[in-house]
Design brief:
About 40% of the residues lie in helices and about 10% in strands. By secondary structure, the protein is an alpha/beta fold. It has a domain at about 70-200: Rossmann fold. β1 (about 70-75), α4 and β2 (about 100-105) form a beta-alpha-beta unit. α6 packs parallel to α8. The radius of gyration is 18 Å and the shape is globular.
Length: about 200
């Protein structure tokens, strides 16, 4: 009876918490996905721009925000041959009003530490992971290892893994990611904006 009484007298969440819960439930519901129509399946590219996030920059940057529970906002998983493009993406994200904190392995890994340890720490301490899937990514065993580590970190995805396809046919999209919507990188500027909006959400 005591637990039932406590349940009935449970305090209502503050308005900011209820707003955050509403945002989270809305972003995880199928109706808010970025697919253009009901006949779209996971693995189709985002045909339209992602709607701006209802979360403001002030909410994200607030000292009490969940953002500060992790060291990085984004961990970029990529092939070494795509480093130039990834550096452009990181520069774009870090120059946004939100000042995203990106983990770029060749830049941010601690010299002398074990590669596996650095990767696992970066994945655990990042809110989401951008997988830049290119022909180089598909041929690189290290990239596949990173992908599997990211999926192990968040098995149900929960919006944390953001696949970005470039110069890869749909049939070559990794099987492990086929339950996730992806961003197809055609125009670089538009794709960077889509990635930024997805990270904010």
């Amino acid at each position: 009876a005591g637990w039932f009484r406590r349940l009935l007298h449970k305090p209502k969440p503050r308005s900011s918490e209820s707003t955050l819960n509403t945002i989270c439930s809305a972003s995880s519901s199928p109706s808010s996905s970025s697919a253009e129509s009901s006949d779209s399946s996971p693995g189709t590219s985002l045909a339209r721009s992602i709607r701006p996030s209802p979360v403001s920059v002030l909410d994200i940057n607030a000292s009490g925000s969940a953002r500060w529970a992790k060291s990085y906002d984004v961990c970029i998983c990529h092939s070494e041959v795509d480093l130039e493009l990834v550096e452009e993406l990181v520069s774009y994200l870090e120059s946004q009003p939100e000042s995203f904190r990106c983990f770029l392995q060749l830049r941010d890994a601690t010299p002398g530490s074990a590669v596996m340890t650095e990767l696992c720490d970066a994945l655990q301490n990042s809110h989401c992971w951008v997988m830049l899937i290119t022909p180089g990514f598909l041929q690189d065993p290290w990239c596949k290892y990173q992908m599997h580590q990211a999926l192990a970190e968040a098995p149900m995805a929960n919006g944390r893994t953001i696949p970005v396809l470039k110069d890869v046919d749909r049939k070559d999209y990794p099987r492990e990611l086929r339950n996730l919507y992806y961003i197809y990188m055609a125009l670089k500027e538009n794709s960077f904006r889509q990635i930024r909006d997805t990270v904010v959400r």
